Amino acid sequence: MPGLIAPSDYSQEPPRHPCLRINAKEPFNAEPPRSVLISSYVTPVDFFYKRNHGPIPLVDNIERYSVSLNGLIENPKELFMKDIRMLPKYNVTATLQCAGNRRTAMSKTRTVKGVGWDVSALGNAVWGGAKLADVLELVGIPKFSYSTKKGGKHVEFVSIDRCKEENGGPYKASIPLGQASNPEADVLLAYEMNGEPLNRDHGYPLRVVVPGVIGARSVKWLDSISIIAEECQGFFMQKDYKMFPPSINWDNIDWSTRRPQMDFPVQCVICSLEDVDHIKPGKVTVSGYAVSGGGRGIERVDVSVDGGKTFVEATRYQKIGAPYVADSPSSHKWAWVFFEVTVDVRQNTEIVAKAVDSSANVQPEKVEDVWNLRGILNTSWHRVQVRVGRSNI
């Protein structure tokens, strides 16, 4: 691509905040401490998790950078940044979550394959850019289309990024055309994050943001958009990010039997306490995040201080001082919800949190029930152990 420098090593990696927990250096994967996540409803860019499959691409000439629209369409087109910026700009508050979030806890049950994420492989940002539905109209695809005249039913996003899983080829993923052409799905070609231009870690100069869907489909460093008949055949659509039952192992796996994972299930995590925390006896504030995919709101978050025998309901909010109401027009439907409750803890115990979304979907109680060999979608009840003493240790 014109204007692109693709680094052959990791010497050109961008600077990162020292507080990040590095889960892999090459390619770079890191997450913030869990306590940082709940310090701000909109996650600062520095503390937004970094998920990469190869070296970070570097676009050095923004004037020459372009994205091609091709495939099963009548009028292929080359779009430059000035063309995309001429379209109406939208700001969408959306939480992106890696499908492997909480993988470390799942691996304690049985070994899984993948980056060892704790609970912070997600973040909430205000993404700014053009709606993909408006971009597709530029090549003759009307809004709310499910197929093109030439039989295109899926929209494939291809990255500048190169990764070993694609044998040195580009990272790619797709979503159905019906979702891509629906303006209410809020799929963006984003060039801003929290009011600033994207940085290199998060897809500069242009990325896709697919709200409510696992982060693997929000392709960074966009190179091309192809309208195709079948879903993308890339590695990360066909040989990864699929949900298998606990009975499947690497000896009997058949990738073709499962669909690529799209929406993420209901999830919640306690962020005010670590996995094993030493506290003083008395009142303890338990707070964290809850989120569900597909635009589903959070109807309830329940917290237990006796290992899950009894629960109390936590308060939920997106704005300080304003109670959150699931599916309210004033609520950010693609974004996480913070929860908080004050409980009395007098002895060593296990504190548990679980959420219910607006479709009444619930989190499974045990991680064993959702264990899978790739360690994705660990949405089991979140548990932390507390040890009570006379003073903090």
Mean pLDDT: 95
Largest sheet: 5 strands, mixed
Could you name the CATH class of the largest domain?
A: Alpha Beta
Helix content: under 10%
Q: How are helices and strands ordered from N to C?
A: EEEHEEEHEHEHEEHEEEEHEEEEEEEEEE
Strand order of the largest sheet: 6-5-14-9-10
Q: What spatial form do the alpha-carbon principal axes imply?
A: globular
**C-alpha Rg, in Å?**
21 Å
DSSP strand (E) fraction?
25-35%
What is the CATH third-level topology name of the largest domain?
Answer: Sulfite Oxidase, Chain A, domain 2
Q: Helical stretch count?
A: 6
Domain Oxidoreductase molybdopterin-binding: 53-235
Domain Moybdenum cofactor oxidoreductase dimerisation: 260-388
Cofactor: Mo-molybdopterin
Protein name: Sulfite oxidase
Set down the secondary structure blueprint:
Elements: E1 4-5, E2 21-24, E3 29-31, H1 34-37, E4 58-59, E5 66-71, E6 77-80, H2 81-86, E7 89-97, H3 103-107, E8 122-131, H4 132-137, E9 154-162, E10 170-176, H5 177-180, E11 188-193, E12 196-197, E13 207-209, E14 222-228, H6 235-238, E15 267-270, E16 276-279, E17 282-291, E18 298-304, E19 312-313, E20 315-319, E21 322-323, E22 337-345, E23 349-357, E24 382-388
Parallel strand pairs: 5-14, 16-24
Antiparallel strand pairs: 1-4, 2-3, 5-6, 7-8, 8-11, 9-10, 9-14, 11-12, 11-13, 15-17, 17-22, 18-19, 18-23, 20-21, 20-22, 23-24
